[in-house]
Each structure stands twice: as C-alpha cells, then as structure tokens.
C-alpha cells in the first residue's frame, strides 16, 4: 500500500525502524524527564542528547532548540509570543508581513494578531509562487515587526530563496523578526538556514517520517518572546508541559537520517518527477505543472489535469487504492477555494483541475508508472461516461421532437 501512497506532504509514513526505536525506548524511558530521581535524570539526559543532535545538524545553539507538539503550535508560540513581548515594552511596531502563499498555520495566526490592532501586509508572488528578494524591502516600514516567508510551499512546492530574502529584510532593518515556516523543507531540501538572517524555523516530525506530535523550533537567542500558555516552565517556559524524551529522540534520529540522505533523495525524486511527466505524456494525458520544476521541491508535484476535476480524480484514484491530495490536506477537506493557487494567478477553471501529489524516497519508477496509468484510466473513464451521457441526451431529444 505504501507504494500507492502519494500524500507524504500531509503526513509521511513512520518507518518500521522508527517504530522499533520508539518501542524499545519506551520500555526504559517511561518516566518524567523532570523527576528528581535517578531515572528522571537519565531520561532528561536522553532529551538533552536529542536536543544536541538537532542543534548540531542545524548549527544552532542547543539552548535555542525548543520541543513542541507540532508546527502549528510552534508558529503560534513564536508569532503571538513576539507580539506579547512587543506589547510589554510598549513598542510602536505592530505590522506583520507574510507571503500570500503561507500555510494556514501562519496565515491564521497572523490574522489573529489583527485582533490586537496589528496590520497585516501580504507579499505578492509571481506565477511560480516566488518572492523577489529585491522587492521585499519596498514593503517594509518603520512599523514592521515580523516578516514570515514559507520555505517550501506545501501546496505547490515552490522553494523560496529564503536566505536571500532574509538577508534583504535584515539589511533594511536588523530589528525585524524573520520567521520561516520550514516544515516542508527541513530534511528534504535543506538541513538549516543562515542563522545570521533567519530568526526562527521549525521541524515537524510527521512531515519527515517521525510520529505526529514530535516537533521542535529554533528561536534566535537574541529575540525575546512571552509565553502564550502557562504551566511548569518546561522548554524555558515557552512550551510548558511535560516534554517526551522518546518522541524527541525519534525526531532527532529521523531528521539525522533524512539529512544524511538529503542529496541522494533529492536526486532520486527529481528523476521520478521527470519520469512521471514522460509516463503521463506517453499515455496521452493532458497536464500542466503548476510550478516550473526548476523552482519546486521534488517532494511536491502540483498539477492541473484539464480533462477531469481534481476532487473527482482524488476520489476515483482513492477507489483504486491510490492516495493523492488536492491543495493542502487542510484546505482541500474544507472545500474552500485555494488562496495559494489564486496568489499564483490561477483561474477558477485551473483550480478545479488541480491536485497535489507527494513523492517520497520510498517510491520507485514502477510506482510512478502505475500512478500515471491509473490517472490515464480515470480520465478515460470520465470521457467514456461523458460521451455515453451525451448520446443518451441526443436520443432523448430526438424522441421528444
Ligand atoms: N506549515 C506547513 C508548510 C505545513 O505543510 C504544515 C502541515 O500541514 C504545517 C505548517 C502544520 O504542521 P503541523 O501539522 O506540525 O502543525
């Protein structure tokens, strides 16, 4: 079934190796890492080791890595926490700039700042979803407190030139807090960012093959935030609540392996993308890539099939045991129009035929071939049905007249 699962950008399967690691660790490390006894202390050491591993790979100081339950929570802690800090010092800054293609985790958190009197400005993207580093400084004002740009877009796969963008932002105003939602990038297209310019990023376990609920974020130690939830003071008080050393260890392990295989996986998936286009063309399937492959993550393949509605294709493929998605899993299940596709200038007709396929390192050429064949068959079936319906209507009309 795994070879027909094309939705790893929503959630990546947890590998057998990680399940085995988790199972063995939970046998010994069931206790609270903050308990005062020997077992607690050992458990705390395990947590520290996981933090060290992630810090070493990303080049961040260990104390700047905070464990949390997910990227959405991390983004809320960072953005709302920074707003609270600025409020506490009566700062005049109350403007947030976000790209028009952010995931809802950033988009809706930014909107929540509006309720506190903040202004929100959107940074436009071009037809490939790209932001121009040169243009971004034009939108910054003396009121700008935060700039957020998604590193790899979850819906269309655009890879932003994050470091060039962050550098321009800092050149314009070094006081600005620059955050990147790096969930679809970490361990896939990058292992970290230039921490001279990027102040915050996050790593969500379920996007790379660790369990849901495992996540961490980096925050520049020079930046202060106020907590948004209150409790026992764990994770420096930014994310109070008992931290799980086992989840943290599995996250660090999976991240470490992803980084070791980053280049190899990137090349493998780039080849699969090319192969997919060829396999579709060979079968006469009409398609359009939403983002030019040169600017997209090979993990995310966003396509428009003009001959079939996206939702229908998702259902027909699902009935055959192939799992793909439309837009991001969250917005497509709500059935709303895609903000992201609109930002790229796509019209309603295009949006109807849009789907997102996620390729993963475990996929092989034959899986892609099977997928292309299944898509071709689904399209053919709808064409045959449309022709049959048209013939029926014609016969009915002839009988009436
Ligand atoms: N940001 C991006 C780009 C995502 O793809 C997702 C996952 O859907 C999130 C944020 C939210 O991540 P999490 O599920 O860890 O809260």
Secondary structure: elements and pairs:
Elements: H1 16-28, H2 38-58, E1 65-68, H3 71-88, E2 95-99, H4 104-114, E3 119-123, H5 133-139, E4 144-148, H6 162-172, E5 177-179, E6 200-204, E7 215-219, H7 245-260, H8 262-282, E8 288-289, E9 300-304, H9 310-319, H10 329-334, H11 339-343, H12 348-352, E10 354-358, H13 365-400
Parallel strand pairs: 2-3, 2-4, 4-5
Antiparallel strand pairs: 1-7, 6-7, 8-9, 9-10
The pLDDT mean sits at 94
Distance between the termini: 53 Å
% residues in beta strands: 5-15%
The ordered H/E elements are HHEHEHEHEHEEEHHEEHHHHEH
Gyration radius, in Å: 23 Å
Low-confidence stretches: 328-334
What does this protein structure show overall?
The protein is α/β, with parallel strands linked by helices and 401 residues long. The protein is 45% helix and 11% strand. The chain has 13 helices and ten strands. The strands form three sheets. Strands 3-2-4-5 form a four-stranded parallel beta sheet, with helices on both faces. The longest helix is centred in the last third of the chain and has 36 residues. It is globular. The termini are far apart. Bound molecules: pyridoxal-5'-phosphate.
Brief sketch in words of this structure:
This protein is of the alpha/beta class.
Based on the model shown, name its key terms.
three-stranded antiparallel sheet, 401 residues, alpha/beta, four-stranded parallel sheet, binds pyridoxal-5'-phosphate
